[in-house]
Amino acid sequence: MFDKNIKARRICSNPSAEELREFAKFEERKTKYGSACYITKVRSRSAKNTYIIKDRELHLGVGQQSIEVSEAVEIIGQVRNYLKGKEVISMDKVLGKHPESRFSCRLYITKESARIPYMWDATLFPAELNNIEPDLVTVYVPEWPERKILVHPVEGITYILGTDYFGECKKSFLRMAMYRMKSKGCLGLHAGSKVIKIKDRMGNLREVGFIMFGLSGTGKTTLTIHDHDLKGEEGIIIRQDDVVFLNDKGYCYGTENGFFFKTEGLEPSQKVLYQAATREDCILENVWVDDSGEVDFSNLTLTSNGRGVVSREKVIYTDDEVDLKKADKKIFITRRNDIVPPVAKLNPQQAAAFFVLGESIETSAGDPTRAGQSKREVGTNPFIIGPEADEGNRFLEILKKNPDIECFLLNTGSVGAKGDFKGEKITIKVTTEIMKQIAKGAIDWKVDPCWGYQVPAKVEGLNIAQYNPERFYTGEEYEKMIENLRKERREWLARFPGLYNEILDAI
């Protein structure tokens, strides 16, 4: 029943991108740039409808839903019978470039949904041979009457039913690959990666590898692609914007050959993404396009989750590499508005704790009823399969093996919010300057007595004292807020049995 091959009335194997676009022509809105835009019925991932199929080898985490094998088998049997009467597209692609992290992937999808493989084709690497035996398979039936995503990570197969959102396709393979890489001693991380080429305090040109974790709305993609106003021989190289695999030496394997980015509010000043989004070969999803082909990225009538897909080679500041030789700096991006400083330097135990905390605050775009409240996701990664404590523990083990790796907490929100005052905004300019100075090694640090992590005493090019949270509260207010946040954080960490005590004690 978990066979990776399917039977169909007709299978169209590995059509070209041009053929796929032609198959999907009936639902295309053509933009003035010549690119295709598609409108979906479902406009975000269906996390609440995602189930891991039970298996003796598999122990699930606290936040993961399971489904009995018998129930899954019944649904899958119905799907496979249905597909016998359908035309199906079969697409082969490769995830990753390094021999130790490469997976052959196959997508089966009903032909009327050809726009999904058209988009997927731009995100992964070409398959070298037809008729290869795939490592990972996704069977996708968007028109299925019931919405369910069934994941069997042990067998390497996912069934996506009743949703036509492209993100489900993309994430299905990344989710299974992350699970597979865990057995090789790696960690699958929901993080962007880049290289900053910069002269240090001694004037020596260095290449510094960064990976950046962040929940939706924290600015992960913005910081991944930002050039930090570097000129000449200094600059950046964008490696990945979604998922990397970290090994115990600090090496980060890249996974994808394309970017799937949010288009909300894009404007010409956002050079990298705007140029990508307005290319003829970019594919847009749920972006407003009028009858004349005019694109309006600020019109959120359809959704605030409009997206674009483009191959890496079409994006400036990229090169032929997707791997990062060393994740020298790890950045946990959060967005809070009160007592979290713009940046803090973490020891390994604190870094593992903040990895497990994966915290930010809810936005009005996410859940308006919880706007401003704390939001947390282990590793900022909603695609973990297995006990969350294993992820945090392994993260700490990797840091201990690599004492040269430095970790930082970066707040992209504001500080000092109180009453009607929304706080002192930490602008993109401030955050990108902080990252540049981290790469340069040009921040002087001091210990924060309340949290034990280090905060900046001096940052070259910034008046960092302006963002000291203590400026905005009385001593009593500040102490109470610390007490409440510490309690919240400790309660979250306590949810995950087996987490090392040194991680629990770091907060």
UniProtKB/TrEMBL annotation:
**Which stretch is the leader sequence?**
none
The Swiss-Prot or TrEMBL record annotates one GO molecular function as:
ATP binding
Q: Could you say which enzyme class this protein belongs to?
A: lyase
Q: Pfam families recorded for this chain?
A: PEPCK_ATP (PF01293)
Chemical reaction(s) catalysed: oxaloacetate + ATP = phosphoenolpyruvate + ADP + CO2
An example of a Gene Ontology cellular component annotation for this protein is: cytosol
Xref: NCBIfam families: PRK09344.1-3
Name by which UniProt lists this protein:
phosphoenolpyruvate carboxykinase (ATP)
